[in-house]
Amino acid sequence: MKNTTLVTMTTSDSVPSRRQTWQKDAVLHALGTSQGFVSAQQLHRQLTQHGSAIGLATVYRTLNSLVADGLADSLVGREGESLFRDCSKDHHHHLICNGCGVAVEIEAKQAEAWASKVAKDHGFTDVSHTIDIFGLCKQCTK
Amino acid sequence: MKNTTLVTMTTSDSVPSRRQTWQKDAVLHALGTSQGFVSAQQLHRQLTQHGSAIGLATVYRTLNSLVADGLADSLVGREGESLFRDCSKDHHHHLICNGCGVAVEIEAKQAEAWASKVAKDHGFTDVSHTIDIFGLCKQCTK
DNA sequence: GTCTTATTGATATCCATTATCAGTAAGGCT
DNA sequence: AGCCTTACTGATAATGGATATCAATAAGAC
């Protein structure tokens, strides 16, 4: 039971200036070329297979910071692992194929509105939601 | 795990008759008395603290079979752990407090309808969805 | 160039969950 | 009741994703 309400004081003056590294570029680029959602492990495998000598820990770190900075989107897959995707655009949701992993972006305004209304109605704050649809795409259904 | 030689199952159907054990009852009962969603670990802790000498593996096994049988509901929490809840009723969704863990049951007909429509429109089959809202409840907001 | 320190990466570690497997006991049978 | 099959249990090992550690490296400021 974790209750650490940690607020990571990234405020004001103590902001460490980010440094640009080829590793970060590599992760971002690899993310960008991926079709659907990918796990950190997959990404790392892909990178190393392409010759990159990036470390696994760095991939995790980079992905997390990307998500924190809103440059990537993440969701929890079937087995509980985190999946990532390039997504500097606005917030949206996905229709994901359990077979091939393809992810279709879907408009969820309706659902979003509903979600935030429900939360508000119950006096909840700091609201986030998880709205994703899983299934088998037309190809994989065969 | 290959059982090459001892398949022989002459029994009409391969459905192994379930046996009733105090362990299963204990898990089910503990689930029933829990307020919101609980993790397998929490449940096990609760049970052992109450004198029960049930094994952790059994708790996991039982919970999984409960979910498989539709007697329990499960979802993936913030840290990626599985959370369970007594829920033989029909499918529904939850508004979950990240602070205290309280789970409010919510009507999601709207969202569900939307989800299945979107999936169908894209030719997806075997569809399931993940619709949950997280936030801080009124109490924990303070 | 020199210095500071953010960042990296190999590895140890953590933690939830599952697999193993010998021992136990539920429940059918006689 | 006793027997027998085997579903079930539980201590523990193993798995696997993700994070922590920490010395070494290199980005960016001077």
How is the topology of this model organized?
Two copies of one chain form a homodimer.
Chain A: H1 22-33, E1 38-39, H2 40-49, H3 56-68, E2 72-76, E3 82-86, E4 93-97, E5 103-106, H4 109-121, E6 125-136, H5 138-141
Parallel strand pairs in A: 4-6
Antiparallel strand pairs in A: 1-3, 2-3, 4-5
The structure holds a DNA duplex (30 and 30 nucleotides).
Write structural notes for this entry.
2 copies of one chain form a homodimer. Chain A has 142 residues and is α+β, with helices and mostly antiparallel strands. Chain A folds into 2 domains: 21-88, Arc Repressor Mutant, subunit A (Orthogonal Bundle); 90-142, 2-Layer Sandwich (Dna Ligase, domain 1), CATH 3.30.1490.190. Chain A contains 5 helices and 6 strands; from the N terminus they run αβααββββαβα. Chain A has helices at residues 22-33, 40-49, 56-68, 109-121, 138-141, and strands at residues 38-39, 72-76, 82-86, 93-97, 103-106, 125-136. In chain A, the strands form 2 sheets. A 3-stranded antiparallel sheet of chain A has the order 1-3-2. A 3-stranded mixed sheet of chain A has the order 5-4-6. In chain A, a hairpin with a 5-residue loop joins β2 and β3 (82-86). Chain A starts with 21 loop residues before the first helix and ends with a helix. The A-B interface holds A 1-3, 5, 76, 80-82, 95, 97-98, 104, 106, 108, 110-111, 114-115, 118-119, 122-138, 141 and B 42, 76, 79-82, 95, 97-99, 104, 106, 108, 110-111, 114-115, 118-119, 122-138, 141. Chain B binds a DNA duplex (30 and 30 nucleotides) through α3.
